[in-house]
């Protein structure tokens, strides 16, 4: 590790500390502005030329919005349709019926665990926000939870979605590692599920029970009203059948699951795979979901077409700021990546004397933390370890894949888009967001490491 590498790591740490100071100090700077200021500062301090800094900011913001912006926007539309039609209310009533408040975090974790199998973290969260807010609001009215019911219900969902996103195929991260290590897909999925269950349990319902009494988080009123409106459904409008309510939320999930199944059992050259890959693309799947919801929850119930259009337009207003802040996080992450922080981390980790599984986890974690991208963490660690795997056939590549995926989840913070999505969706401060998604994903990552090491010891 060179002196330049050390300098880059110091600059990164200082940049994150400056970001926190700008947002939380008396300046109370808007996160988007703070992220852009820090991005420019880190770029200058790391030696990037002015043109490159501007290019990195534009590319980072653009690629982040390209990956998540459309899906989040379509998810907001779907959530608005679910809320306005009473579908989210119906689903919440079914979940609450016969369930005590103590079992609700477990039920929500299970729902997110299943939905998270094919879905990206951001897409899954925006899809489940109407359900989270509706259930939490009912708990708030009944006063059955000490502390914030939004945290009690939200943390298990965040834990389950994050775990599935990083540790279990067919998510892109694990698939990248499977390809690089030539790991067995079926065994990787089995190990991934085995490691995911205790990670979700500890980081979800159990941590939620511990942290909820200490927090008073409540989402912004506009967003809360959008996903869980105060007004009751018009009595002249037919109530939503529960099968229709569930179908509306599961259609995009099934589209993405179809893509996952096709990728596992069919050749990429087959017609079925190509069709499944198209309809299972997050943007296309969400578009299909929105169109289906417009028909099932709107047209079929006699809702005025102008009312539907106005509702869809209104749904975008509360999330516009969230999308721009996520874009700012992407810009910050891109500047860090272009400044060479990732290479500095690889140089640092290559000097460690660790087992392949531990080394893969450490490198993925360090790269993810420093660059704000779990994918960069996985790609960087697989590139570093691929020669080692090729030279040592005794390495359990399926477990190594799960370890790398769990490492990429560790310590999700200010340069990650998911951090800002959680922060703004739940109306939290920087400190509160740290206590939720950052700690939750850190628990998931550490449990993933512990489980892969244990399984590696057992299977030999």
From TrEMBL:
UniProt-annotated location(s): Cell membrane
Membrane topology category: Multi-pass membrane protein
Major localization class: membrane
Record key words, sorted: Cell membrane, Membrane, Transmembrane, Transmembrane helix, Transport
Annotated TM spans: 6-25, 32-50, 106-136, 148-168, 188-208, 245-266, 278-300, 312-332, 397-415, 436-459
UniProt record similarity statement: Belongs to the GntP permease family.
Protein name: Gluconate:H+ symporter
Species per Swiss-Prot/TrEMBL record: Tigheibacillus halophilus
Lineage: Bacteria, Bacillati, Bacillota, Bacilli, Bacillales
């Amino acid at each position: 590790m060179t002196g330049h590498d050390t300098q880059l790591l110091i600059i990164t740490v200082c940049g994150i500390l400056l970001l926190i100071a700008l947002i939380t100090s008396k300046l109370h700077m808007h996160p988007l502005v703070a992220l852009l200021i820090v991005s420019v500062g880190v770029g200058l301090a790391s030696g990037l030329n002015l043109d490159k800094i501007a290019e990195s900011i534009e590319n980072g913001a653009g690629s982040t919005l390209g990956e998540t912006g459309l899906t989040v926007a379509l998810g907001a539309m779907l959530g608005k349709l679910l809320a306005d039609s009473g579908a989210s209310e119906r689903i919440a009533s079914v979940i609450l019926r016969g369930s005590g408040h103590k079992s609700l975090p477990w039920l929500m974790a299970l729902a997110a665990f299943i939905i998270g199998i094919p879905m990206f973290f951001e897409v899954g969260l925006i899809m489940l926000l109407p359900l989270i807010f509706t259930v939490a609001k009912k708990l708030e009215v009944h006063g059955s939870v000490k502390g914030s019911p939004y945290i009690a219900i939200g943390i298990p969902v965040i834990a389950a979605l994050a775990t599935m996103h990083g540790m279990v195929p067919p998510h892109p991260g694990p698939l990248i590692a499977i390809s690089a290590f030539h790991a067995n897909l079926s065994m990787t999925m089995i190990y991934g599920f085995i490691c995911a269950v205790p990670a979700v349990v500890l980081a979800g319902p159990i941590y939620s029970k511990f942290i909820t009494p200490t927090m008073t988080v409540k989402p912004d009123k506009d967003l809360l009203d959008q996903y869980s409106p105060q007004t009751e459904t018009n009595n002249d409008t037919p109530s939503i059948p529960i099968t229709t309510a569930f179908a509306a939320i599961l259609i995009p999930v099934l589209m993405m699951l179809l893509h996952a199944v096709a990728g596992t059992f069919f050749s990429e050259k087959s017609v079925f795979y190509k069709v499944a890959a198209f309809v299972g693309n997050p943007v296309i799947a969400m578009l299909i979901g929105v169109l289906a919801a417009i028909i099932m929850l709107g047209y079929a119930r006699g809702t005025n077409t102008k009312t539907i259009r106005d509702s869809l337009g209104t749904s975008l207003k509360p999330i516009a700021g969230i999308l721009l802040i996520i874009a700012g996080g992407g810009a910050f992450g891109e500047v860090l990546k272009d400044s060479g922080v990732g290479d500095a981390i690889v140089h640092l980790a290559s000097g460690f004397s660790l087992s392949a599984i531990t080394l893969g986890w450490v490198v993925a974690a360090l790269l993810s933390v420093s660059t704000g991208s779990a994918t960069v963490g996985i790609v960087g660690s697989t590139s570093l370890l691929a020669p080692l795997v090729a030279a040592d056939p005794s390495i359990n590549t399926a477990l190594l894949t799960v370890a790398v995926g769990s490492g990429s989840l560790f310590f999700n913070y200010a340069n990650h888009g998911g951090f800002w999505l959680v922060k703004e969706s739940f109306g939290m401060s920087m400190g509160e967001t740290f206590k939720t998604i950052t700690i939750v994903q850190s628990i998931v990552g550490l449990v993933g490491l512990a489980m892969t090491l244990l399984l590696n010891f057992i299977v030999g």
